[in-house]
Amino acid sequence: MDLKKHVLMVTKVLAIFFLIHSISQAQPVNDNDLQVIKISPKNESAVIKVQKKEIKVVTVGDDLGNLGKVMEISKGRVVLQRNTENGNELILIRKETGEDQRVEKISKVQGLPPGLYMPGSAQSPAPAGNKIK
């Protein structure tokens, strides 16, 4: 009986952990989640429709939740940045007057950048006070 209680408790804890983990993950951004209606590059603002429901006026620096943060608003485009578990992702929404919008996603995977080596730099310098012969 004691083993059954232990297994049941561990199962419940794991189920709660996976539920919380799946809720906290950033949801993928679909092309339909954000629609740019009008861009004002002079004011660095844009009128957007979020998930085909809510219309908002956004400016640079605004946080749009799981859609990302507004990084740039310029003529013909809105740039968002969002953090994912694999690194940063830039979302470029291009919208020219009278044209349909185009969405481009650029992902940057976190990790160490490639190393740059100078010839002879692989050796460590001699300790202070020692003479090199």
Describe it.
By secondary structure, the chain is α+β, with helices and mostly antiparallel strands.
Q: Key features?
A:
single chain; 133 residues; alpha+beta; 4-stranded antiparallel β-sheet; 3-stranded antiparallel β-sheet; 1 helix; 7 strands; flat
Q: How would you sum up this structure in a few lines?
A:
With 133 residues, the chain is of the alpha+beta class. It has a domain at 28-109. The protein is built from one helix and seven strands.
Write the layout of secondary structure elements.
Blueprint: H1 2-24, E1 34-40, E2 45-50, E3 54-59, E4 69-74, E5 77-84, E6 87-94, E7 102-109
Antiparallel strand pairs: 1-2, 2-3, 4-5, 5-6, 6-7
